[in-house]
Specification:
Elements: H1 5-28, H2 42-75, H3 85-92, H4 110-136, H5 142-159, H6 163-185, E1 195-199, H7 206-223, E2 226-230, H8 249-252, E3 268-270, E4 282-284, E5 302-303, H9 304-313, H10 317-329, H11 334-347, E6 354-358, H12 373-393, E7 402-408, H13 412-417, H14 419-422, E8 426-429, H15 432-437, H16 446-460, E9 464-467, H17 472-484, E10 494-496, E11 510-513, E12 532-538, E13 543-548, E14 554-558, E15 562-564, E16 568-569
Parallel strand pairs: 1-2, 1-4, 3-4, 5-16, 6-7, 6-9, 7-8, 9-10
Antiparallel strand pairs: 11-12, 11-15, 12-13, 13-14
Protein name: Alpha-(1,6)-fucosyltransferase
Keywords: Glycosyltransferase, Membrane, SH3 domain, Transferase, Transmembrane, Transmembrane helix
GO molecular function: alpha-(1->6)-fucosyltransferase activity
Amino acid sequence: MITFLSINNFTKHFIVAFLLFFLFVIIFNGGFGWHSNEYEDVDTSGEIILARLSRAMAELHALKAQNEELRNLIQNFAPLNSKPKFVESQLKLVSYQDSDHERDSTLSSVSDLEYELSRRKLKTDINELWNYIKQNVNQTSPFLKDLKNSLLYDIDTISRRNDHWRRNELEKLSNYVQERITKLQNPENCQSARKLVCNLNKGCGFGCQMHHLVYCMIVSMATSRTLVVNSKSWRYVGNRRMSNQKSLWELAFKPLSNSCLDDSGNPRGNWASGPNRDHNKVLDLPIIDSIRPRPNYLPLTIPEEISSKLITLHGAPIVWFIGQILKFLMKPSTEVEKYLNQKRKQFSFNSPIVGVHVRRTDKINTEASFHSLSEYMVHVSEFYDRLDLFNQRMNKKETVKRLVYLATDDISVWKKEIQKYEEKGYKFIGDYEISNTATVGRRYSFDSLKNIILDVWLLSETDYLVCTFSSQVCRLAYELMQSRVPHIDRHMDFFSLDDIYYFGGQSSHNQIALLDHQAQSSNEISMKIGDIIGIAGNHWNGYSKGVNRETKENGLFPGFKTAERIESAPFDLFQD
C-alpha cells in the first residue's frame, strides 16, 4: 500500500475547508435553527434544532466514510506511467507509515522518495561509467579521473538537502530495531516463552557461522520467538572453558539475553513438523540450505513494516538490516573488548583509513581467484585521490596521509607485496602474526577467534573497504560497517574485486529494467522496461550478467539500465 504524505496533508486541508463551507451553508440557511421561526413555539424549535443537528452529524459521518474511501483509493493508486519505473517498482512494495508529518522529520511528498532514489542511482551510474571508461580506454587521463571525482563531490553536496532529516530518521530506525530485538530476547517469563534454538555447529569458517546466526535471528524475528543459541559444539573455542561462562559463545561475545538462555520447553519440534510447527513451544532450526518449506522472509527480503522508510533512507536495505542484527549479536565479551582496544592503540588506528582484506589460502581455485595486492591498491589509490579532490573543493590545504589497515590470511602479502607501496607513501597497519593464526591448521583456536574478530571489527570501522565479496569475512565487515555509525548510509563505501553482495542461501536476487535494451552481440541479452532480471554478477566494466526472467535469455546487460527490485515480507516482531 502506498501512502502519499503530501496527498494526505492536502486531503486534511480539503476536509477542513469543506467542513467550514458546509457549516457556513447550514448557518446561512438557518440550518442549526439559531434564527428561530416566530411561528414556531420553543419546544417545536428545540426539536427541529436537535433533528437538524442529528442530520448534520450523520452527514459528517458519511463525509468521513467517503474521505476514508478516498484515502484508500489514493493509497492504492499506482503512480502514473510517466514515473521512472524503478521508483514505481519500489513504491509498490512498501507502505510508509509515520504519525509525524513535519517537513524535517519525514517525507513531505513522493518527490522526496524519487529524490533519494535518483541521487543514489546517479552516483552508482557515474561509477558504472567510470568502470566502462577504464575498461575501454587504454590509459585513463587525469582529466577524466578528476572530472569523475568532481561530479561525485557535487552529488555529495546535493545530498545535503535532506541530510539532517535522513540522519535523524536512520538513527531512530536503528534504535527501534535494537529495542524490538532486545525485548524479544528478554521475555517476561522464559519458561512460557516461545523459543527458536540455533545450533552453532555449522561446518564452516567464522564469517559463515556468524551469517548462520543472522539467519536464525531473522527467523526468530519473523516468527516472534526468543532465539536461544546452542554453542556446545562451537569449533572455534576448542576445549577452552571459563568457570563463569554458561556457554562457549560467552567466551567471545555477550549473551543474547539477560533472562532467557535456557532452551527447555514442551512441546518441542523441528521446522519440518509441518502444520504442528506453530504449536511447538520450542523449535529447532536447520541450516538455511536445508530449511523446507522456505519462508518468504529469508534474505534478501526485508521487513515489510519498516520497508518504505528503509528503502528511502538507505541504498542497500538488506545490508543495513543484517548489520543491525550483527550489531545485536556481536557484542564483544569483556576479554575480547579489552583485546580490541589494546590493538587499536597499538596500531594507532585513525581516520581516514582504508581497509584491505586479502583472502587466499583455502579459497583460491575453489571459491575465488587469486588477486595480487596491486589489484586492491588501485581502488585504495582512487579513494585517496577522490578524498584529495574533495578537500581541494572545500579549500582544505592539508595532505591526507594514506593509511591502510591490512587483514590477510597470507603472510607473504606482508613480506613481499607492501614494500613498493610503502615507498609511494602508504602506511600499512595491522599484525602480520594474525596471518599465521588464520592458516587452516590454526584457524579454530581461541587466539585465532580473537584475531578474526579483530580483523572484522577494524575493517568495519574503516572509511572504505577493498576486498572480495566471495569472502564471508569481507561481507561480514561490510554489513557491520552499516551499523557502526547508525545515522550514515555507508552502502557505497566498498569495492569488491569479484562478486556482488550476496547472503549465502539467499532467495533470488532480482533487478528491474528501467530502459529498453537491444542486444548488441551474442553475449548480451535484450530487455524491455519492467522486465525482471535475475542478476548473477557485475563485471565492473559497465556491464552486469544475468537472466531475463521474461525471455529466459542469459548474458550481459548495461548495469545503468536496471535497478534493485527490493522484496519485503511481514515480520511478527514489528506488527505492533
